[in-house]
Amino acid sequence: MLEIRDLHATVAGKPILDGLTLSIPAGEVHAIMGPNGAGKSTLAYVLGGRPDYEVTGGSVLFDGVELLEREPHERAAAGLFLGFQYPVEIPGVSYLQFLRESLNAQRRARGEAELSGAEFIRLARAQAGELGMDAEMLKRPVNVGFSGGEKKRAEMVQMGIMDPRFAILDETDSGLDIDALRAVGAGINRIMRAPDKGVLLITHYQRLLDYVRPDRVHVLRAGRIERSGGAELALELEREGYVEAAA
User: Does the keyword Transmembrane helix apply (predicted)?
Assistant: First the structure.
């Protein structure tokens, strides 16, 4: 489903990704763990198409098509979703309007009919209810005044509405308390656990993986995959740390 081959990338002229290779088949959740500065968020931004992250080598195939040749909105329309470690605030734009415009833009790009206002409201309320979020909050400006947990729940509502085929979730567990972590984990499983979908879950800690069990865990260090294993590898990293686990 997602095939990353010998990927190299720089940020502000500094090499970050150094020959990263990774394959994620449809129907699987893969977790990437690693120390600070290893290139985890850089990988997420490169896949999402952030313009100031320059790819200097390699390729990324999504369903057999070169992803890196597509603009960010084209990647989204193709079914790619990027969840941020720190979701941004957008004052003056209601979350409902933002989500409706985003969804209908993707539907137009795929040649699908747009949802009416009533159809979208029903969808948004259903997704918010699944995440235990008051749908009234979606009338507020995007993420303005939201707590860390509310921002992540709202992002899961967004993912449920967009219904992507592949999700890249960059430290979704950052800043979450136990209840929010459980709700977000349940949301990921409900929306993305399917034979035709895939997830790349970037995290520092084992705790999210208690709720979203990965099929594979990869250790990213110095811009490349250093080690891979099953879900038990995350427990080893939690117990021994990255230095000891690499020894």
Answer: no
pLDDT in tens, 158-217: 999 999 999 999 988 887 888 888 888 999 999 999 999 999 999 888 888 999 999 999
Amino acid at position 27, single letter: G
Give the rounded percent of residues in the chain with a pLDDT score beyond 90. Answer: 74
Reference 6, options 16, 27, 23, 20; nearest CA is: 20
For residue 103, give the amino acid letter.
L
Compute the distance between CA of residue 193 and CA of residue 63 in angstroms, rounded to an integer.
18
Are 77 and 63 spatial neighbours (Cβ–Cβ below 8 Å)? Answer: no
How far is the C-alpha of 173 from the C-alpha of 183, rounded, in Å?
11
Query: What does the pLDDT look like over 21-38, one tens digit per residue?
Result: 999 999 999 999 998 889
The alpha carbon of 182 is separated from its chain's Cα centroid by a whole number of angstroms, namely 17
- Residue 206 sits at the vertex; the CA angle it makes with 201 and 210, to the nearest 5 degrees, is 85
User: What pLDDT, on the 0 to 100 scale, is given for residue 128?
Assistant: 92
Largest CA distance in the chain: 57
In the structure encoding, which two tokens stand for residue 81, read together? 């979703």
The tokens of 148 are what?
Answer: 């860390």
Stretch (H or E) spanning 19: strand 14-24
Domains of the chain: 2-246 (3.40.50.300)
- Phi/psi of residue 74, nearest 5 degrees: -70, -35
Q: Give the Cα separation of 115 and 122 in Å (integer).
A: 10
* pTM for this model (two decimals): 0.92
Query: Under a CB-based contact definition with an 8 Å cutoff, are residues 109 and 162 in contact?
Result: no
